[in-house]
Every structure is written in C-alpha cells, then in structure tokens.
Amino acid sequence: MNDTEANPGNLIVITRNQHSISRKSISDAALKVLYRLSKSGHRACLVGGGVRDLLLKVQPKDFDVATDATPEEVRALFKNSRIIGRRFRLVHIRFGRDIIEVATFRAHSEDSPKTELDTHGRILRDNTFGEIEEDAIRRDFTVNALYYDIHDFSVLDYTGGLADIEKRQLRLIGDAATRYQEDPVRMLRALRFAAKLDFVIEDSAASAIYEFGHLLAAIPPARMFDEVIKLFHSGRAVRVLELIREYNLLKYLVPALDEWMQQDPSETMLDFIDQALVNTDNRVNTGQPVSPAFIFAVLLWPVVLEQATRVQSNRQKMIPALVQVGESVMKRQVRHISIPRRFSQMAREIWTSQPRFHRTQGKQPLRMMSYPVFRAAYDFMCIQAMVGLFPHKLSRWWTEFQNNNPVSPDQERKKPQRSRRRPRRNAS
Ligand code: ATP
Ligand code: MG
C-alpha cells in the first residue's frame, strides 16, 4: 500500500474557498436534509457521486447524504421518510419526485456480529455504525469517498480521491482482490464510472477484474438487473459494451451474446448493436424515455435472429419461429439477469413485430400502430434498416405512413389504459 492509499491518517481538508462546489448546484431537497440534520446536532455531509460530479462540473444524477445520526434518528426528523434495505439500512426522504438517500456512517468490521460474510468473503449484510473515516474507507473508489461537510462547506478527502479526480482515474480503496471479493458488483461499477466519466481504471483495479470476473456469476440476478440497466442507461452504452468485452465480462451478463461474438460475428449485426446503443445514448442524453426491454431486445437479437432463421422454413413461418426461439433465449437469459416480466415480454414483442413490418396492405398497418410496443419496435426496425438488415424502402414507407396517420391525442391517451390490467381509480 502506498502512503496516499486508504490511510485515514491522511485527511486532506479543502476549505470552501479552495474548491468549486457551490450550494447553488446542490438540490434544495439535499440542502434541506443536510441543514436539518446539522441543526439537530448531527454531522451531515454530501457524499459519493454528488460530490464527485460537482467537482468534475457534471450535473449529479442524485445526491446522497451521510450522517452520524442513526436511521431511527433520521426517520424521526423527517416525516416524509422511510427506512429501507436489509443488506444496508438506509433512509429515503421524499420531496415530490426527488428522493434523498441518507446513510449512517458505517464501519467495516469483519469481526462485528453485524457484518455477515459468505464463504467467498462476500458481504451479505453490514450495519455496523462507525466514524466518518471508517465510513470513507469502506466505500468503493477513492473518487466516491469525498465528503462535502455542510458544517463549514469544506471537502474532506480521507483516501486521496481528489488527486485521483485530477488524474481522472478510478482507484479502489484498499486491496483490489479483497474489495472485489467483498462485492463483485464493484467490477461493474468500475466499468460504469470509467465509461461515464471517461476515467481510466487504475492498474491493480483493472487487472483484478480479469481474475475475479467469474464472481459475478454468484450475484443475485435481481441485483444484476439493476446494475446492468445502470450500465446501459448511463448515456455511454457504446463504451460500456466495449469495456464489458475488453474485460471478458460478457459471458456473465449475456452469455448467449458472448458465444455469438466468439464465432466470427457478422459486421452488419455488430453495426446494428452499435447503432442501437448510439440511439439509446442519444435518448438518455437528451432526456427521452428509454426502456430495459429495448436493451435486451438489442443484445439478444443476433442470437434470436440466427436461431429463428435456422428453424423457420419460409418467411411466413418467421413469426412463430421468433416466438419459439424468443421464449427459449429469454428463459436462459433470466437465469443470469432477472428481467421483470413486463420488459422480457416487450422485448419478445419487439422481435415478433419485425416481420410484421413487411405487411403494408389493408388494415394491418393501422392495427400495428395501435400496439403499445409499436414505438420501440419501429425504432428497432429503423436501426435494422440503417445498417442494411431491413429494406430501406419499407422503413421509409412506415415513417411516411405515421406522418400521414398521426396518432390523435385521444388514441394516445387510450393506449396505455388498454394494456393496463387494473384501471387507475382516478382515470378520466
Ligand atoms: P451515480 O452517479 O451512479 O449515482 P454514485 O457514486 O453516487 O454514482 P451510488 O450507487 O449512488 O453511486 O452510491 C453512492 C455511494 O455509495 C458511492 O459513491 C460509494 O461511495 C458508495 N457505494 C455504492 N455502492 C457501493 C459498493 N458496492 N461498494 C462500496 N461502496 C459503494
Ligand atoms: Mg448516487
């Protein structure tokens, strides 16, 4: 360990006039939480991505607060709050659509009865409260362990995070092997931050991914879903996929795609995946809605299309082939990443819709347009056309058809109601 690494003795304090964080860039909700905790005699700091992003002059996605108040004390101070989590107990404080996550300073202690490890050294539960310096070193990367203290507006750096922000690098706090064994998801977090922030992964943190990548196989599929969606909805999905492949992690995320990639993949199909991820990145970066269904539809399409083409006897039989293959490919996938049913169903509908875009006669096109999956399926088809997997003429036809048959606001309103099982009580 070198001397800047995870040594709580090396606290660096950057006073308010030496850093660029202004309260104007912190949400009112986060400030309210920080001030109320502080006024009640507690220590309260902004921590994690919020501080990191503000220092990088990037708009934070959310604000996390760390405090010496226990979850029960926090709960008592905010009536709009609730305690969540088992693995880590946290308090969520709600302000309209905004949620501020408040965590109590935690110590990582292997002998504590409140820290449970499994036989591989994985942390199952950790609710041992501690001091701020202990809290800092149990975080994942040094750049995620910076605290903005509301008491005097200084930034506290216990692990050398500021120097790493300068160097634009992701360095794990402590020994890479131990930290990945405690929580293998940190490997996926490394890739996400590397892509999102355009940071390099420091050597020991990078090389340990090759060694410990296989530990991802033991992560509960539900947690994998959350992490994988964060990866592909980060606004840098193209880079994310590159990194996943570079670090040989695709086999733990989407094994069928990994196998397909190993066997001389077609350039056109690789282009399709790239273009679809470019499309997702554009949507994320311009604030348009995105769906996990689209991501999985894209990542599994090479496999689904190849297998369906093999089992069908002619183009008329393509839809039943896609239904059958789609089901079996999805069944295998959800063993690794538990994709909620509404998304896996929608991904399959995107696939089975593709041959339907060949039908432009009679009532079929209007009916197609009324399906809830239409928008995503149409985007998917246009991307196929863009790379030469679908006739251009047809994709232009569908674009014009929509321009000539705009969905009336009335139909737009009705559409989701039709697909909803239970009507909303106050639906007009
Ligand atoms: P984002 O911009 O995605 O919100 P973030 O760094 O804030 O990035 P969160 O998942 O919101 O990430 O977590 C907040 C903080 O909690 C992190 O910055 C890090 O300090 C700590 N943290 C989160 N997950 C882990 C983990 N698996 N191991 C150690 N520390 C973690
Ligand atoms: Mg965060």
Superfamily at the CATH H level of the largest domain?
Beta Polymerase, domain 2
Beta fraction: 5-15%
Global mean pLDDT: 91
Strand order of the largest sheet: 1-10-9-2-3-6-5-4
Total domain modules: 2
CATH class call of the largest domain: Alpha Beta
**Fraction of residues in helix:** 40-55%
What's the CATH topology label of the largest domain?
A: Beta Polymerase, domain 2
First and last CA, distance: 64 Å
Annotation, overall tally of beta strands: 12
Structural class by sheet pairing and helices: alpha+beta
User: Which regions have little confidence, pLDDT < 50, spanning 5+ residues?
Assistant: 1-6, 413-428
What tags apply to this protein structure?
428 residues; binds adenosine-5'-triphosphate; binds magnesium ion; 12 strands; Beta Polymerase, domain 2
What does this protein look like?
The chain has 428 residues and is α+β, with helices and mostly antiparallel strands. It has helices at 28-39, 49-55, 71-77, 132-137, 161-167, 176-182, 185-197, 203-212, 221-232, 237-246, 250-253, 255-262, 267-285, 292-311, 318-333, 341-356, 364-370, 374-387, 392-404, 409-419, and strands at 12-14, 44-47, 64-67, 81-84, 90-95, 98-104, 115-117, 123-126, 146-149, 154-157, 169-170, 200-201. It has 2 domains: 8-171, Beta Polymerase, domain 2 (2-Layer Sandwich); 258-407, cca-adding enzyme, domain 2, CATH 1.10.3090. It is 51% helix and 11% strand. It is elongated, with a radius of gyration of 24 Å. Mean pLDDT is 91; it is low at 1-6 and 413-428. Adenosine-5'-triphosphate binds at residues 48-49, 61-62, 64, 139-140, 144-145, 183, 185-186.
